[in-house]
Design a protein that fits this description.
Alpha-Beta Plaits, extended, alpha+beta, 4-stranded antiparallel β-sheet, 11 strands, 5-stranded antiparallel β-sheet, SH3 type barrels
């Protein structure tokens, strides 16, 4: 069985919670707990000012969209795609939806895999993948929420800060 990933489903505006409830009911009825792991309508708390009164309210972060953590296969695609209120998957072709990348998930506040780090500010690290591969730098800042480190690298004789993902660096020997 393949790995579960996050996918984005487009819905009729205002139907996000209804679509979430319909999919969750389908999971229950068809016993799809092992293939559709989570259905989410991301919300954020905002403060509205009405008639001089401040009030905390929940607003949808992405109106018209529902996030689904699932194992993609033809059967699950069909079940989700034909749920009442769903207009399609987000991607270049609705038959081949594109899963969210780790970076996109983190920027939306969806927690990915926790990465345990074994370095701290002041340590020297080497970048192991990407554009900065084989570059050595000193850690100046660690951001556990975004899972990135800011390292200082020597670029044309000047120290330059560069943000690198936790998974793309390792301690230098």
């Amino acid at each position: 069985m393949s790995e579960a990933k996050w996918y984005v489903v487009h819905t009729y505006s205002g139907y996000e919670n209804k679509v979430k409830a319909n999919i969750e009911k389908m999971i229950e009825n068809r016993k799809l707990h092992d293939q559709i792991l989570e259905v989410s309508v991301p919300m954020q708390e905002v403060i509205e000012l009405k008639n001089g009164v401040r009030k905390r309210v929940q607003k949808k972060m992405f109106p018209g969209y529902v996030l689904i953590h699932m194992v993609m296969n033809d059967d699950i695609w069909y079940v989700v795609r034909n749920t009442r209120g769903v207009t399609g998957f987000v991607g270049p072709d609705s038959k081949q939806p594109v899963p969210l990348s780790e970076t996109e998930m983190r920027s939306m506040g969806i927690k990915g895999d926790d990465i345990v780090i074994d370095f701290e500010i002041g340590d020297t690290v080497t970048v192991i993948t990407g554009v900065w591969e084989n570059t050595t730098g000193v850690i100046k800042q660690i951001n556990p929420h975004k899972q990135i480190v800011t390292i200082s690298v020597d670029l044309f004789g000047r120290e330059t800060p560069v943000e690198i993902s936790f998974s793309d660096v390792r301690l230098s020997k």
